[in-house]
Structures are given as C-alpha cells and as structure tokens.
Amino acid sequence: MASSEQGNQVDEIQLWFARQLREFVAGAGGPSYRQLELGIDTLGASLSKSTIWRILNGKIHPKPEMVEQIVRAAHAYAGRPGEPDLGVWERHYDRLQERLIVLGHGSRTIANAVADEEGRIWPRRLGSIPGAVEAFQERLDPLVDRVAGSFILTGTGGVGKTQAAAEYIRGRLAAGDLDLAIWISAGARDTIVSGMAAAATDLTGASYQDPELMAHRLRTWLAGTRHRWCVVLDDLSDISHVRGLWPLPSARGITLATTRRQDDGLRGYGRRVEVGVFRRDQAVTFLRARLPADAGSDDDLAGLAHDLGFLPLALAQVSTYMCDRKLDCRTFRARWADTRRRLADLIPEPGALPDDYPVGLDAALELSVVEADKLHPAGTARTVLQVLSVLDPNGVPESVLRTPAATALMPSADEDLRRDAQRDGVRNLRRLNLLDIAVDDATAETRILRVHVLHQRSTAELMSAARRYEVARTAAQALLDCWAAPPSGSALDRMLRANAFVLYRREPEALFTPEPHEVLFRMGRSLGEAGQAAAAVQHFRQIDARVHDGTTGGTSALAFKSRGYLAWWLAQAGRHGEAADAFESLYADQAEVLDPEDPDLMQTRQSAAVWRGHSGDLDVARQQLEQLYLERIRIQGPHHRDTISNRNHLANFRSYCGDFQGAWELHDQALRETEARVGPDHPDTLRARATAMRHRGEMGEIQRAVEAYRALAEHLQGAVPGHPSTFSARHQLHEWVARSGQLDAAVAGMERLLADRLAALGPEHPHTLDSRLLLIRWRNRSGDRERALAEADALRRDLERTLGPDSVFARAIPAALEPW
C-alpha cells in the first residue's frame, strides 16, 4: 500500500476515535476545553486546553491515560454518580490500537522502539522468574513440545510446581522458540492485576490509572500479538482471583498456572497436570547431585528419600541441612526417626534456606492446611487431618472417619451435621491436594484416603499433648468400630490391621492409658487370623508385659484377658505344650479369685485340657473333658453353648483316642438336637450331619462321610460360594473323596479349591496354606511325587519368607510327603 494511502487510513481511524470522544463530551453537557482542563486538574492530573482540542479533533494519537482523564472530567461535569464505564473506552481504544498496528503505527510499535532503545530487546522477560535449582528433575512430560494452550500445574506444597514452570520457560527461551515470558504472582487478585498491568505498560507504552483496565489491556494485546508468549500465574490460591483475567486463547501463547488447589472450578481454565513427588530414581539422582559422595550408597539415599516421602522441597532443604552439618544419611535418618525432634530442628535456619525458597518445610506444609481449614465449614479439614495423622500414610479406609467415634470430633452437636462436616473436611483436604482418594482394587468399593507422611508429622507436631491423646484414643475406637464387619483375611481387615499397628507405634502411651484399649487385642487377633500366629504371640507378649508393669498385677481381669490371648496364639502357632502350660497357669491364678462355677474359669479349664491333648496327652485331655462336660451339664445345662462346645471337643478327643463309636454318639446327639430345632435341611443340620458322618467314615463307612460333606458343600456353594465355611466344607469333601480311593477326582477338586482360596483369602491365609498342604499330600499319595516335592519346596520357601522356617505349616510338610 502506498504511504499516502496508509496515512489516509491512519487519519480516518484517529478521526473515528475522536468523534466517539466528542460525542461523549457533548452528551455530558458540552463542557468547554477550559472546563475540561479544570476538571482534569481536580483529578490530580494535567492536560492543557490545546492538547484536549487536538485529541477531540483527531490531530494526535492520545495515550490511554489521556482518554481516561477526559472521560472522568466529562462524567464529573455532568454530575453523574459513581464511576464512568471505562470498559467502553478500553474497547474503543483497543480497536484504535489494533488498526494502527496493522498500518504499522500505534503505541505498541512505539513501546517496542523504546524497549529496543533501552536495551530491552526480544525475547522479553517480565516479572521475577525464579532462578534454576541445583539438580532439577524434569517432570512435565505433558508440556513437552507444547507452545499453545492453558495448563493447571496442581500438586501439594513442595512438589516443585513453581520450579517446573520456571524450567519450562527457561527451556523454551534457550531453544529460541519463545519471545515473551511473563511471570505473575497469583497469591491474591490485586497482585495478579498489578502484575498484568505492569506487563501491559511495558509492552504497549500505555498507562491507565485503573490497573484492572491495564490488566484487560494485556489480555487484548496477547490475543492479537504475533509474538510467541507464555504467561505463568504462580501459586494461584483462589479461583476467584483469575475470573476475567485469564489470558484469552491464542495459537501463539501458553498459560501456566501453578496451584495447590484442585477444585472442580479449575476445569474450565485448562488441562490439569498433576505434579507429584519424585520417583525413587529421581530422588536418588537429586540427592546424589546435592550431597557429598560419602553421604551414603544409593540404597541409603533411597532410604532417606523414603523417610521424607520423596517430597522435592523436603529433599532440597534436608540435603542443605546435612551439608551444613556434615551429616551422612544414616546419621541424619537417626535424627529424623527421633520423634522428639521437630521438623524445624531438621532443616536449615530461615537465612540458610536453599533455592531462594521463602519459608522452611514446616511452614510450607502448614500453609496448605491453614488454607484448607478456612474452607466451609471452617475448622473441619484440620480435624480430619489430625485423625489421619496418627494412622497409616499408605491408606486409611474412609469408613474409619465415618464412625460415631471419629465424627464426634466435629464441631457440631447434631449427629447428621457432624457426618456432613466430616465429609466436607475430607473434600476440603482434597481441594488443597492434602489428601488423595483411591478405590481399593480388592473390593472396588472401599474408598482409601492417603495423606503424605510429612503432612502427618507436621500436623501431629502442632497438636497439644492433650489433643494428641484425644485423637489417638478416637482413632483407636474408630478402627475398632470398623472391625466389627470385615471377615478375617479380607482386604479391609488387612488395612485396619496396618492402621492399628501404625497407631500403636506412633501413640503407644495413649493406647495403654488409663488401660489398654480394646483395639490392641483386636489387632493381635487379626494378625493371628491372617496366618501370622508367631507374630501374634510376640504382640500379646508385649501387651501382657505392659499389663504386668501396671498397677493391677497379674491377677486382674485385664491380666487374665491378655494371658488368655497369649495362650491361645501360642496354641495356634503350633506351640501346644507351651499353650497348655500357659492355660494351666492361668487357670490356677483364676481359681484363687473366681468362683469354681464361673464360666471364664471353666473355659480356661477346657482350653488347658484341649491343648494338653494336642501336645500329646490324649487320654489326659479326654478324661478332663469328660469330667468338665458332666459339670457343665449340671451347672449350665445340656443346651448351653459352652456345654455344646465342650461336647464337641470331647467327641474329637474320643476320636483321637480311637473311640470312634463314642465320638459318633456325641456328634449324633448334636445332629438330632439340631435337626429337632431347625429342621432336616437347615445349614446347621447339614454341618452337624457331616461332622457326625465323619466318625462313621472313621469306622469304615467312608461313603457316608463323602455323601454328607457333598450335601453340605453343595448347599453352601449355592448359598455363599466365597465364604470360608464353604471352603472348609469343600476341603473336607475332597479329603474324604481321596480316602475313598478317587485320588484323581480329589486332586482336581483340591486344585479348584486352592485357586478359589487364593483369590478370596490371599496366599498367606492359614486356610490357603492348608489347601496347599492337602494338595501336596494327596498329589504325593496319587503317585505324582515329583510334582509334590516341587510344590513342597515352593511352599517351604514362601513360608520362610512370610512366617519363618519354624511355623506350624512348615513343620507339617514332611508328614505331607510321607508314603500312604
């Protein structure tokens, strides 16, 4: 286009703008140039009459602040209330600017010329971009090769979101594919506005008195520029802070926001990119670069990183602390494990923090909690986090928090409101990336809550001793309440047990004061029922020792309870003689303080007899059970459940002593009583019939035993196919099928049973191990000795790894391999 034609078009656009401004002044009552000059003077600005005339007649291209001054003066002259609508004039001015740029004129061209004159050439950096950190680990794969769009970098405090964004900018600048980088602190709306306004002034040469207008001016400029740009909104703390300010979409621009938040409201602003903690290899590489070579091996570094939850900020500050004090990994980890030391004692002083980070690890962690606790309903997030802080960082079933014990901590007198507050507290923690929610793979239903180990430690440190005690006892009761439902060996049972042991390690005194909490006994029972009988013995030894160390001595009800649990798990661990001794000792002490007819005393007497028999004294056990059975009939009656239990044990020991007829008589009596009570087809009757027929099988009528167990197994398989009682019936059925000589059919059935138990109960459950032993025995007896030996070796290795070489299952392997 010829120069004269361009000039004409420039004149036309300036005249158009001047006409809009003149019409506004006329509509305000038509003040004179002098009156406008005086009005502008009262605003604290200065604009001469001649300049006003030239602007209103399109003779010059005005700066935006000049336009604002004329509009404000005319608005005031008209006596109109409030502020004038400057947005209209921003849009008019943007139209003027865009047209002038197309024609090669306008304030952006002028601003660029001034920038060039001052040495501020492209590419441009506006705002304070953080410096590079030592040993930075790249983790923004979703942003690789991305030059346009909007992204939300979200993650808990300290994962390195800010550094990731800064490194992205540095990488693009170094590659030469970025012209403009704008870094804006987004902690509050006014800092966002001021940062955007400053950038707009730098880029356009314009300067409105209203920073909001300048912020919008930047948005318009970015949307229309041919330069490649990136805007970072760092540490966005509230979605409302960016409403109306988010840069407009552009094919040449990318917007990154870093935030601890992950509210649903962020979805409309851009693609969410999760920034998590380091992987193991990243953490080791990071520490190796920042610590002396003699600080430790890679395994030592990995252990240190694990202690710190692989949080980048923690690794950075702790590595600086270690270097300043010349500590190696093992020495520092010993300090870290000492819970008497606070987080602030294990990081550098404020003046020695690395990487220009403004606050220490302890303050950074607390910042997110404070923000979460402000969310409605205020105060609930911290309460939820306090309970989670004493439990397992690897996962807490959400049902624990929904128990009456846990919801009672919520600040409300109404139970329904407390439950709602608890749910909101969980959600508020999630909104600040303080908590992850997953669904348990095993159940596909149980929601699992995970909190970073450092947030747990920080939260626990900030609680008073009284509050920690209250929270620990609350958590214990909540776990106990949840334990009423899940069957032994289930995924939920394992999770509750893991949480209980974490609570025990972290708050042992709270669980023993004023007396041992019931959860201590429940967690030990769960441990034993999961096949870890030896570990249960060790656990109950600790409980028993603590009880005896107390003021109650060894003959209180509490002491009797702990001794009873210990004796029982000695028996389950296969230490039958020790169990018998323990029960006999307990019986002797109970007999001194309890009535001879006390049910607890009789139960201890029965247990002592049973385990004395299992230790080898079969006749002694049978005689003691015979005597106790008669006493129970006299004292408790023949139909009392304890009497029936005694009769069952007596029948078993008659069988063990070879008195199959006597055993049959007792169990046949039980069968007839059950059938009379519930009918011939009831599951209880089927169980009683199978038990009685077992003795007929022992007397040679094997087919009767097979038929009885088949009827029971088929009924249970149809009613409760995955229940442990169904598996037990199938186990007995296959045993009797094998005894009948149908070895191939028995082995095939045992293989199916083992597969079902593995799927339902897991590889370490006692019933699963029983199935493996049974399969080895009958595979060996069917002639497939080579495979039986291979499976026995595999079982032995698994047992050594999980339960130890001296477990009751390991001791049973040689017998399973004996010839038939």
UniProtKB/TrEMBL annotation:
Domain annotation NB-ARC: ranges: 150-287
Lineage: Bacteria, Bacillati, Actinomycetota, Actinomycetes, Micromonosporales
InterPro entries with a match to the protein in the record: NB-ARC (IPR002182), NLR-like (IPR053137), P-loop_NTPase (IPR027417), TPR-like_helical_dom_sf (IPR011990)
GO molecular function: ADP binding
A Pfam family matched in the record: NB-ARC
Source organism, top-level taxon: Bacteria
Protein name according to UniProt: Tetratricopeptide repeat-containing protein
